[in-house]
């Protein structure tokens, strides 16, 4: 991996040590925008008729994430401050279940529009109906002890928020562009709880969260694909939105 070949100036100097330590997956250029739920048909038409030839990548999936943060919510505050370099740690699995057998820890980072992700699979299955957060977090730590991911979870010991949504996937004709559409987003606050809270919803998007991704070295493809986009692109974090709602802001 050669971050300096795709990102200028100080961005490259930050990405280089990250790539060396975490060995994340491919660097990606990521662009998000929000669409009101009542414009769902318009969005579907935009995807279906796009000149890139988007088609369904694979079946829709339910995505569940548990976000961890420091006791003073540093990742949440960094997002609100608009910092270019941001990071978050989450436990993620796929499927509408609270007893996942293939959950994984993910460290997701971003500098401006360049994102990367490093992950580690959990060897043990989980049961959020029966286990306490102390037990779940111990299993999570066991999966990353001695790895480059350990300091990231050590710095974020608190389970703060669970999010769940339905994701649809679309690939361009040449498979160099990917669009995801997240619908029915809900969130459940976990701060101060000994056991997972799985019923009391604190935040629910009335919008669709859309993201276009491509290789960071091919960001011009994204610019071309979005040049006639009828919606405004911008930053959006499901984690930050959920915590903001929980705080009552």
In short:
With 249 residues, the chain is of the alpha+beta class.
Task: Characterize the structure shown.
26% of the residues lie in helices and 33% in strands. The chain has a single domain (24-247), classed as mRNA Triphosphatase Cet1, Chain A. Strands 1-6-5-4-3-7-8-10 form an 8-stranded antiparallel barrel, surrounded by 6 helices. The chain has 249 residues and is of the alpha+beta class. The protein has helices at 9-22, 40-48, 74-80, 133-144, 150-154, 219-225, 238-247; strands at 28-36, 55-56, 61-69, 85-94, 104-111, 114-121, 158-171, 178-189, 203-204, 207-215. The longest helix has 14 residues, at 9-22.
What sort of overall outline do the alpha carbons produce when their principal axes are compared? Answer: globular
What is the terminal separation in angstroms?
41 Å
Largest sheet: 8 strands, antiparallel, barrel
Strand content bin: 25-35%
Second CATH tier, the architecture: Alpha-Beta Barrel
């Amino acid at each position: 991996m050669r971050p300096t070949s795709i990102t200028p100036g100080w961005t490259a100097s930050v990405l280089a040590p990250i790539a060396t330590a975490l060995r994340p997956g491919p660097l990606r250029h990521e662009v998000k925008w929000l669409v009101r739920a009542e414009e769902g048909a318009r969005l579907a038409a935009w995807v279906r008729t796009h000149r890139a030839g988007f088609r369904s990548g694979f079946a829709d999936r339910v995505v569940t994430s548990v976000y961890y943060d420091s006791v003073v919510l540093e990742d949440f505050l960094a997002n609100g401050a608009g910092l270019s370099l941001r990071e978050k740690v989450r436990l993620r699995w796929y499927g509408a279940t609270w007893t996942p057998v293939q959950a994984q820890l993910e460290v997701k980072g971003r500098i401006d529009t360049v994102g990367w992700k490093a992950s580690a699979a959990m060897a043990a299955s989980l049961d959020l109906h029966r286990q306490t957060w102390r037990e779940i977090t111990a299993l999570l730590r066991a999966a990353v002890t001695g790895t480059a991911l350990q300091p990231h979870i050590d710095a974020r010991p608190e389970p703060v928020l669970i999010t769940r949504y339905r994701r649809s996937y679309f690939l361009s004709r040449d498979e160099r562009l990917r669009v995801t559409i997240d619908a029915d987003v809900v969130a459940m606050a976990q701060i101060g709880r000994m056991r997972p809270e799985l019923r009391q919803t604190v935040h629910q998007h009335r919008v669709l969260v859309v993201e276009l991704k491509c290789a960071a070295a091919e960001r011009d493809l994204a610019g071309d694909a979005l040049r006639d986009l009828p919606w405004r692109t911008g930053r959006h974090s499901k984690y930050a939105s959920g915590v903001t709602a929980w705080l009552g802001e």
